[in-house]
């Protein structure tokens, strides 16, 4: 894989991968910047990678998922270079009659086998996983039916 970043002014850069896909990066203090800062992008990449795995697995398991989010809470060192020191992934799965064991298995396969971002980052700092399952009751209403943690063996 090859990639490059091109300076667009101040602390903004356009990143492009050899696939042609682009994203803007911005480390300015302006909350309305052009894109995420590099460290934000790392956390978002991990969430996106595992989310793509999990939803793909749940679809193959014929789970009726109506909404799905993966949130990341990451802690950073106080001193420069302010690396991540730990992270928690929170999987929120909403659907109809979801099988908790299918959700757990999807998370397990993602973090143990498929997600290269998780595999790489877990070599550097601890990453925990928590899940919350909601029953979709229609009209935007959901009811929590299960929650727990995934513990790698």
Describe, in plain words, how this protein is organized in 3D:
This protein is α+β, with helices and mostly antiparallel strands. The protein has 2 domains: 1-35, N-terminal domain of TfIIb, CATH 2.20.25; 38-150, 2-Layer Sandwich (GMP Synthetase, Chain A, domain 3). It is built from 3 helices and 7 strands. A 4-stranded mixed beta sheet has the order 4-5-6-7, with helices on one face. Helix 1 crosses helix 2. The protein is globular. The relative contact order is 0.14.
What would CATH call the homologous superfamily of the largest domain? K homology (KH) domain
Class by alpha and beta content: alpha+beta
What helical percentage do the residues reach? Answer: 25-40%
- Written as H for each helix and E for each strand, in order along the chain, the element string is EEEHEEHHEE
Number of strands: 7
For the record, the CATH class of the largest domain is Alpha Beta
- Main sheet overview: 4 strands, mixed
Backbone CA Rg: 18 Å
Under CATH, the topology of the largest domain is which? GMP Synthetase, Chain A, domain 3
Count of structural domains: 2
End-to-end C-alpha gap: 31 Å
Mean pLDDT: 96
Which regions are unreliable across 5 or more consecutive residues at pLDDT < 50? none
Strand portion: 35-45%
Order of strands, widest sheet? 4-5-6-7
